[in-house]
Structures are given as C-alpha cells and as structure tokens.
Amino acid sequence: MKKILPTLICFTFLSLQFLVPVSAAPNDIASIKIENVSTRIFTDKSGQKVLEKISKNKQGDIIEVSVEKGEYATAVNTGDFSTQAVVYYAASRSTVSSRLEFGWAQLRIYANGFSDSYTSSSKTSKKAIDKISVNTTLLMNGSVEDQDTDNRTNSSFANTSAAQQSWMVPTAPQYSRSSHAYHHSGANSVYHSTEAKR
C-alpha cells in the first residue's frame, strides 16, 4: 500500500496537467500543425516595407504571425564620396505564436523578437557588428504579460522570448512588439519597430 500511494498521487497529478478547460483551445499536436501559410507586403506608418506571414492549422486557426522589415546600413557620409557604401543589412522580425507545452492546460502564447545583421539582403551570410539589440513585449488582453531584452556586442544577432505567465481566456488579440537597434563604427545606425498581431 505504501508503494502504491505515491504512484497514484503522481498519476493523478500528471493527469490533471492534461485537462483542457472548455474555454481553452484544443491542446494537441494537430491544433498547432501548420497547414497553410499566407504572405503579404505592406507599408507601415513609418513608411517602411513590411513582410507579414500568417501560419494557420487545418481548421483555419492562426498559429503564428510573423512580421519582418529590413534596411541597408550605409557608411557615414564624410563628404569625400558622392555615393554611400553599404556596410551591412539589418533584418528585424517579431512573431506571436501559440505553442503546445507540457504543464499547460491551454496553448501557451509567446512573443519573440529577432535582430539579425547580414552582408546583403539575400541573407545568406551573417555579419557581426559592434552592437545589436532587441526588446520585446507580449501584450495579452490589453495588458503587458511579459518582456525580454537582449543586447549583444560584436555579434550578428540578438533574440528575445516573452511568454504567457498565467492561464487566461483570450478576450483580445495578442501582440508581439519589438524595438531593434543596430550600431557599427563607420556606419549609420539603424532602428526598427515591429509588431505582430494574432
């Protein structure tokens, strides 16, 4: 009996972890399997071109939204040249997604931010720069749920992950809002703001 009791307690605890409230999204592999991806390009309020990707499951539910923008950093104009040389390409991205995670009775929401520097817009080769950073905020039901910041030196990337902290029924869209900064000696600095809405 003493050996059976701990086993029963453990089994009951694990079973409770997989209970899905009626108001929560289905919590299984099929619910997060991406079956369709659509893309569109638009110009945001700051006049920058944005690539948006929306990933959906078989039922048409949105699993992930990703927004990305890019810009060439040019050499600081000293007046010696009529054209500015390209130093690197800054690519900024925000995603908001739902994930299946052990211990959660509903799909957990994540906001991720990515700052990457490349040699060109083809994004085939990374280029380390002096300073690169990203700050990401996850907003749920109209309030800040979590934040994360990553600042790096002599690096070609910085990334963040802000996660849902408590169980809640979504009553409003979820947002991933990120601010990105790129600094390199001899080049103009680049600043981006990205926002993904799910």
Estimated radius of gyration: 21 Å
Uncertain parts:
1-26
- How many helices? The count is 2
Instruction: Give the helix level as a range of percent.
Output: under 10%
Total number of β-strand segments?
10
Taken in chain order, the helices and strands follow as HHEEEEEEEEEE
CATH topology of the domain at 67-197: Immunoglobulin-like
Q: What overall geometry do the principal axes of the alpha carbons give?
A: elongated
- Tell me about the biggest sheet? 6 strands, antiparallel
How would you characterize the overall build of this protein?
The protein is mainly beta. It has a domain of 131 residues: Immunoglobulin-like (Sandwich), CATH 2.60.40. Helices cover 9% and strands 52% of the residues. The chain contains two helices and ten strands, in the order ααββββββββββ. Strands 1-2-3-4-5-8 form a six-stranded antiparallel beta sheet, with no helix packed on it. β9 and β10 form a beta hairpin. The N and C termini lie far apart (50 Å). The N terminus is likely disordered.
Structure summary:
It contains two helices and ten strands.
Annotation keywords:
mainly beta, single chain, four-stranded antiparallel beta sheet, 198 residues, Immunoglobulin-like, disordered N terminus
Fold topology:
Blueprint: H1 4-17, H2 29-32, E1 36-43, E2 49-56, E3 62-74, E4 86-99, E5 108-118, E6 129-140, E7 143-155, E8 157-163, E9 175-183, E10 190-197
Antiparallel strand pairs: 1-2, 2-3, 3-4, 4-5, 5-8, 6-7, 6-9, 9-10
